[in-house]
UniProtKB/TrEMBL annotation:
<keyword id="KW-0597">Phosphoprotein</keyword>
<dbReference type="Pfam" id="PF02518">
    <property type="entry name" value="HATPase_c"/>
</dbReference>
<dbReference type="InterPro" id="IPR004358">
    <property type="entry name" value="Sig_transdc_His_kin-like_C"/>
</dbReference>
<dbReference type="Pfam" id="PF00512">
    <property type="entry name" value="HisKA"/>
</dbReference>
<keyword id="KW-0418">Kinase</keyword>
<dbReference type="InterPro" id="IPR005467">
    <property type="entry name" value="His_kinase_dom"/>
</dbReference>
<dbReference type="GO" id="GO:0000155">
    <property type="term" value="F:phosphorelay sensor kinase activity"/>
</dbReference>
<feature type="domain" description="Histidine kinase">
    <location>
        <begin position="162"/>
        <end position="378"/>
    </location>
</feature>
<dbReference type="InterPro" id="IPR036890">
    <property type="entry name" value="HATPase_C_sf"/>
</dbReference>
<keyword id="KW-0808">Transferase</keyword>
<dbReference type="InterPro" id="IPR003594">
    <property type="entry name" value="HATPase_dom"/>
</dbReference>
<dbReference type="InterPro" id="IPR003661">
    <property type="entry name" value="HisK_dim/P_dom"/>
</dbReference>
<keyword id="KW-0902">Two-component regulatory system</keyword>
<dbReference type="GO" id="GO:0005886">
    <property type="term" value="C:plasma membrane"/>
</dbReference>
<dbReference type="InterPro" id="IPR036097">
    <property type="entry name" value="HisK_dim/P_sf"/>
</dbReference>
<protein>
    <recommendedName>
        <fullName>histidine kinase</fullName>
        <ecNumber>2.7.13.3</ecNumber>
    </recommendedName>
</protein>
<dbReference type="InterPro" id="IPR050736">
    <property type="entry name" value="Sensor_HK_Regulatory"/>
</dbReference>
Length: 378
């Protein structure tokens, strides 16, 4: 860490950010630019921004060594309490970001253990950049003057989108196995036919439960009913979900460490099949057909996690959060080869967060992408 901030870089960066704000840009790329600017100007090893929402916060942008924290859901208690998300709290400098009287988030910069602790000049810079973030969020509010009406319309659209997408997974599996029975009845053998019928029956039951949930949804805000929560065995549930994947995708799944002695997870057991199907399908689309898609699970003191990793084209660091936006898709050849509505990862985040968990993507060392889902311990 330098003795004093790089004020030349700060001036250039401020001008660039203000130009974008004056042009009406208020989205995540501007937030990411300010985060990178904080790391660059202060000479930190990484930086991150926690966006506050009612009842929780989420790391929506990060740079340097703090990138793995992107997507993490946190309790927005105090800035000091959030410093641990990005590293050793004694080496993290954090400042709250205000839009008028409302705290909209907090900006944090992580300094290495070999560095001197930041001084007043560093604090002044991060406060300046936090004020820029507050101005950005204030501009967002001005652009959404009729926010209540916009929210209601968005949730009505979302209800339709999630309904159609959540129904599509079991329907696709049922149709696939039914076609297999029709076209390959004789070659399947008795065991294969019994297995196909079993999967069809399981997915038909899931479809019936989905329809019941959708029909019972009456709230204006677009919620799809309450997720039935309870303790469940995560490794067993994952193995069952893999067994119900389409045959071509199932053959590519390589089961890694799924310890039977893991503690119970707490959440909606039935949703795991949908979450796994979406993440595995995403990995399949973005990796070569002769490569494995790896699945493993583990636990720590507060959560259980499972990871799906591929050796595909990977994901750019600036896209790890945007990939969860509704309708967002990466540009380029892969999008043309694999067209879609851009709802799969959005649905995954929605399902996971309803269970007080969080999901994230990150580039995999050596190439590819790792998707990680964390759920509360029972």
């Amino acid at each position: 860490m330098p003795d004093r901030p790089d004020y030349t870089a700060l001036t250039r960066g401020q001008i660039a950010v203000l130009d974008r704000l004056n042009a009406g840009e208020t989205g995540l790329p501007v937030v990411q630019r300010i985060v990178r600017l904080a790391e660059e100007v202060l000479g930190g090893l990484g930086a991150g921004f926690v966006e506050y929402s009612p009842g929780h916060g989420r790391v929506v942008a990060a740079s340097g060594t703090c990138v793995p924290a992107v997507g993490r859901r946190v309790a927005p208690t105090s800035v000091d309490a959030l410093n641990h998300v990005f590293g050793d709290p004694s080496r993290v400098l954090g400042v709250r970001c205000q839009a008028g009287d409302t705290a909209v988030g907090s900006l944090h910069v992580y300094f290495g253990e070999q560095d001197e602790k930041p001084g007043p000049a560093h604090l002044g810079v991060i406060e300046l950049l936090a004020a820029l973030l507050g101005r950005l969020y204030a501009a967002q509010r001005e652009l959404a003057a009729d926010v209540d009406q916009a929210r209601r319309q968005e949730n009505r659209d979302l209800w339709v989108a999630v309904t159609s997408h959540e129904l599509r997974t079991p329907v696709t599996v049922i149709k696939g196995y039914a076609d297999t029975l029709t076209n390959h009845w004789d070659t399947l053998g008795e065991a294969g036919r019994h297995e196909a019928v079993r999967v069809i029956g399981t997915r038909a039951g899931e479809l019936a439960r989905l329809v019941d949930r959708l029909l019972s949804a009456t709230s204006e805000d677009g919620e799809i009913g309450g997720a039935p929560a309870g303790p469940f065995d995560l490794p067993e549930t994952l193995r069952g979900a893999v067994d119900e994947l389409p045959a071509d995708l199932r053959r590519r799944i390589k089961l890694g460490n799924l310890p039977a002695e893991l503690p119970k997870a707490y959440g909606d057991r039935d949703s795991i099949a949908t979450i796994l199907t979406e993440l595995a399908t995403n990995a399949e689309k973005n990796s070569a057909p002769d490569t494995a898609i790896e699945l493993c699970a583990a636990a720590d003191g507060e959560t259980l996690r499972f990871r799906i990793a591929d050796r595909g084209i990977g994901i750019r660091p600036e896209h790890v959060e945007r990939a969860f936006e509704r309708y967002w898709q990466a540009e380029g050849g892969e999008r043309r080869r694999h067209p879609g509505a851009g709802l799969g990862l959005y649905l995954v985040r929605r399902l996971v967060e309803r269970q007080q968990g969080w999901v994230s993507l990150r580039p995999r060392e050596g190439g590819g992408t790792t998707a990680e889902v964390r759920l509360p311990r029972a």
